[in-house]
Amino acid sequence: MSASSPPPIDPATRTLTLDPRDPSFYGDPYAAYARIHAVAPVAYWREYGIWCFFAHADVDRLLRDRRLGREILHVATRAELGLPEPAAHTRDFDAVDAHSMLEREPPVHTRLRTLVNRAFVSRRVEGYRPLVARMAHELIDALPSGEPFDLLEAFATPIPVRIIARMLGVPEETAPRLLDWSHRMVAMYAFGRDRAVEEDANAAARDFAAFIRETVGARRAAPGDDLLSVLIAAEEQGDKLSEDELVSTAILLLNAGHEATVHAMGNAIAAILAHTSAPAALFADEAAAARTVEEALRYRPPLHMFTRFVLTDCEIAGIGFRKGDRIGLVLGATGHDPRANPDPQRFDPAREAPAHTAFGAGIHFCIGAPLARIEMAAALSVLFARCPALRLAEPPRVRDAYHFHGLERLMVVR
User: Which domain holds residue 223?
Assistant: First the structure.
């Protein structure tokens, strides 16, 4: 869909008809967002079967609205809501999900987040900046010259997974397995998943959980200076952390700690190479690097759709909702809202304080956001300083995964 195409919206009913699996949409959702913002930034998305919000002000406000939440069964029963019992073939995936901080509301969420926050204090996170730079130099040393190669695989993917593995105290050599399990698990969030995807995600969750439990056993015997050891100590001291919660938290941080960052870094590199002729100048100092990263997160964010349950009967934007309804918050559209960012289709690394919701907002604001920003700034500073002639070898190929907007490959030449 081009920005000039008729919007797939019925203005009278505010009904949006748009297939998330359509390559013309997931390849460039921003053209569709431009038309949606102009016609109906609150719309009933027929394919998802829920009301969705696209405007920056609405999404930012609703992410903080305590009438909405990530879970619903703490305020209602399945029978009350008419929900089916959990499927047997996703039992292992659901067990991990049930104890995930991302899927819980206070007071459980507050307790888990308070414990995990210990690893994300600014001083500790800032300490990873030189490590990221060293990893970037090592990876660049191994890049081919004069021939096309996939920068996503060779550079953007290894750094985040190695950093989060080190933070948790998981051996870095297990990175390929972690990536495989993570990719298979997050496929559960894709639109139109089938039984095969669900069974594969369940198997990945089962194997991932077994690996974490084995690692926890090793850390109990020999604690280290890592987050897993901190969480184990909290559990052993009776700080209200069960081993199931410990396992789910580790899996969440490993998945979220690299999946979104890989996409954010790949998207940023593609945007920079497509729109600037002197990328190194965008990273001349830490302030310039931070501005460039923030604009890249606005322009091509990695996560596009987050849902919330309605926790109590209420009215939002003139629409009546009942307890148990779901709504969609389109994070990927907020940075392209012309009411929040003038000329949003233009990539402008000099843009001051671009408005976006790439990391969410409210109590579920991404706990790893400071680390992700440091990883992107440090890694890309090294990349463009070392490879000033880097250029795209072909148009970047976008993955068929609307929920996680990222590249399938990023072919470049240095």
Answer: 9-413
What are 65's two structure tokens? 């609205």
- Answer yes or no: are the C-beta atoms of 322 and 42 closer than 8 Å: no
Question: Residue ranges of the alpha helices (H) in 222-306?
Answer: 227-236, 243-275, 286-299
Residue 373 lies in a domain: yes
User: Domain for residue 212, yes or no?
Assistant: yes
Q: Does 4 reside within a domain?
A: no
pLDDT digits (tens, 9 = 90+) for 23-65: 999 999 999 999 999 999 999 999 999 999 999 999 999 999 9
- Contact by Cβ (8 Å): 50, 326: yes
Closest CA to 340 of 355, 352, 330: 355
Terminus-to-terminus CA distance in the chain, angstroms? 32
pLDDT digits (tens, 9 = 90+) for 330-341: 999 999 999 999
Q: What is the pLDDT of residues 385-401, one digit of tens each?
A: 999 999 999 999 999 98
Tell me, what CATH number does 184's domain have?
A: 1.10.630.10
Q: Cis (ω within 30 of 0) for the bond into 107?
A: yes
- Statement: the pTM of the whole predicted model exceeds 0.85: yes
Strands 15-16 and 42-45: parallel
User: Residue 32 domain-assigned?
Assistant: yes
Number of domains the chain is built from: 1
With b meaning 16 or more CB within 10 Å and e meaning fewer, what string describes 256-290? bbbbbbbbbbbbbbbbbbeeeeebbebbeeeebbe
Paired sense of beta strands 326-329 and 50-53, if any: parallel
Percent of residues in the chain assigned helix, strand, coil, to nearest 5: 55, 10, 35
